[in-house]
Predict the structure.
Amino acid sequence: MTELHWLEAHEAAELIATKRLTSLELTKALLDRIEKYDTGLNAFLTLRPEEALEDAKKADEAVQKKEKIGAIHGVPFALKDIIDAADWPTTAHSRLFADNIAKNDAEVTLRLKRAGGILLGKLSTHEFALGGPSFDLPWPPARNAWGRDYFPGGSSSGSGAAVAAGFVPIALGTDTGGSVRNPASMNGLLGMKATYGRVSRRGVIPLSFSLDHVGPLTRTVRDNALALSIISGFDEQDPGSSDVVTPDFSKYSGSGVKGLKIGVIKHFYQEDMIASDEMSSGLENAFAVLADNGAQLEEIKTRPLVDFATCNRIILLSEACAIHQKWLVERTDEYGESLLTRLLPGTAFNAVDYVQAVRTRARYAAEFNKFFEKFDAIVTVNNMEVAFLIEDQAACDKYYSRQARTPFNVTGNPALAVPIGFDGGGLPMSMQIITNQFDEAMAYRIAASYEAATNWTKMHPDLDKTATLP
Amino acid sequence: MDIKNFAERYMPKEVIEAVGSDRAEVAIKMASTAAARLDRNNEFFYEPAHVYHPGNWSAKK
């Protein structure tokens, strides 16, 4: 059997359901691994081992009693610490919320629990999902599982580190300007930002209500599809939620790509920004795999990245400052410097800027979605480079914004981060697959075809080398 | 007139006093740059009614 910590969620669920593994064994194994290695990675802010073990025992009892069980019965998961779990802290990795205890489960937490998941803990994030990596907060920042000296991506940084390290098979993050896909990219994981409205945000501390998405990070395509199937669904208490049918995404992931028409956006990383040579080569190789698998690839051109980034930034910071402006004045010293720097421009935009950005967004989304009259999907770059050194502030300033994720927060389309190998230094690289609104199944289908033809999702970091303290 | 040239931005003085003029100056420059880059095409198109759905706020029975 695969080592317990590298079991996929669906594999573990199958083993537990058929009594070849107990939830208690699995949960203990993951807790042992966290205890051994998380001092080097700082993925978790809150762990409750006793509670998790108790929940695992109950899960095993349910199997023994042949009760009806869910799709991830007895399988541990973890949450970015802006997502509520009843009676757990939700700190947003900030002094401002250091004593905040959630009264209720977020809708996504509830759905994972109903599917049988065991909540193992709450994970590091950039402060309020925006400022980071930060060294001036009550808790240290999470570090990259492939090398603890490196940035793990953000803002769902702990989610990326925890899944890549084999601490949990599924973690949830949030994505407002790319914060699920960035840690997925830098930790060699699958990370899905589904269609805006597909997944409820109720019980999640907002950054920007019209751009926020909740999404899963996993090590494999199948687990990602499974996790999205579990957390998706209409929620009348989230005003952004869409009342659409939730397919079982995992059932669509084995059909191959033969005959599919895939648009390729190269100008994002060849003209608007220039990606590193290794990233460019990695992307070309990935696109060649899709072509070898039978897809028809054709280069397309959309707006330059700066148009989408400007629209995203004005909406995001205006909405964020609607929440934070009062605290910025009254509790300034409780903010970390990185969040202050990123947030403050939002207090200087005016009402016309915001409304104009919202109008612009609608136009950009309509323009972009015309591609799907001809194409089944679009592929492009994720980050322009691999992870930078986490303590190198100059590198952070230079590289943090060099990405092509914000366009799809603006348009609301599904965007899936998919690992495409490693650079010469052993750090993960990534592409994005973008599909028509509510067609996440197509993204999983293409990703599954690519995954089957490559070996990237089977590769894991050796934490004895990458996660131990100096 | 260049319609993108609405670039000068201001920060409420309460915020400047709270965060200090150095931070404020950097932030105002960033906001002004973004405001100058914002696409101000004045096409009428799905005016922002799409962000408000009265049905979301109707009483649940």
Remarks:
- The radius of gyration of chain A is 21 Å.
